[in-house]
Amino acid sequence: MSHTTVDEETAAIHEDITFTFAGAFAGMRRSLPLVASDFAVGIVFGVLARRAGLSLVQVLLMSGLVFGGSAQFAALSLWVTPLPVIALLLTTLVVNSRHLLMGAALRPWFARLPRARAYASLFFLTDESWALAISDFARGGRDVAFLVGSGLALLLAWVSSTVIGYVAGALMQSPEQWGLDFAFTAVFVALLVGMWKGKAHFLPWAVAAVVAVAVAHWLPGKWYILAGGLAGSIVGAITGAK
Q1: Residue 135 has what pLDDT?
Q2: Is residue 62's pLDDT more than 80?
């Protein structure tokens, strides 16, 4: 694709960008199937957080401010006394580094918003809300409040379910018996199926998977997330996969 075509496409996107309550409500409605899965995963996190020794206030603050399931689960695996603050910060940074790629993908639609509104909207950026928003934009949607509505619905479900899981933790000693531990995986499989656009995506996805598995095998921690994402993105950019 030529640079002229890219510039024209970006300009066309910018011309009709909107940010409305209708767009936010549309995002919330589209998120409802994922809300159920997030709720199940949140309960698991709440139960495990109680086991790890976190207080209810700590669980509420972590879920409300971090708002990142994978980062929060990674943090729980490191949660000991005294807290390894540096290790927690680095692990969270690595796990959430994928948001750099996700944010870059959203730039064509958010670049024309006032900076304060654009940056505030990105608080609601999650894997699920990003995938839904990108899918909506690819189909011609131009209301960027879609991301906010989607993320808000997921945030409410996540915070409430983690608190419920914490409170019920004394009764639910083994979430695995209920199959709740698989909900996190099920969410991402469903998102991948929805984002599949055909054979052009096979090579970037395959490269991302191979690199992620290799890095997970050879390097400790969560570096495989960033490595797989970068490898797939580079291959996608080279091959022109959209």
Answers
A1: 92
A2: yes
Written as six digits, the tokens of 201 are: 């995506």
CA dist., res. 78 & res. 198, Å (int): 40
Tokens of 34: 């994922």
Can you give the length of the chain in residues? 242
Asked if pLDDT for residue 187 goes beyond 60, the answer is: no
Rounded distance between C-alpha atoms, residue 90 and residue 43, angstroms: 25
For residue 125, the 8-state DSSP code is: -
Phi, psi angles (nearest 5°) of residue 97: -65, -20
Dihedral of alpha carbons 139, 142, 144, 146, sign: negative
Q: How far apart are CA 211 and CA 229, in angstroms?
A: 9
Question: Whole-number mean pLDDT of the chain?
Answer: 82
Least Cα distance to 177 among 66, 56, 78, 43 occurs for 43
What span, in angstroms and rounded, lies between the C-alpha atoms of 211 and 226? 10
Q: What is the CA radius of gyration of the chain?
A: 19
User: Which of the four pLDDT bands, split at 50, 70 and 90, describes residue 173?
Assistant: low
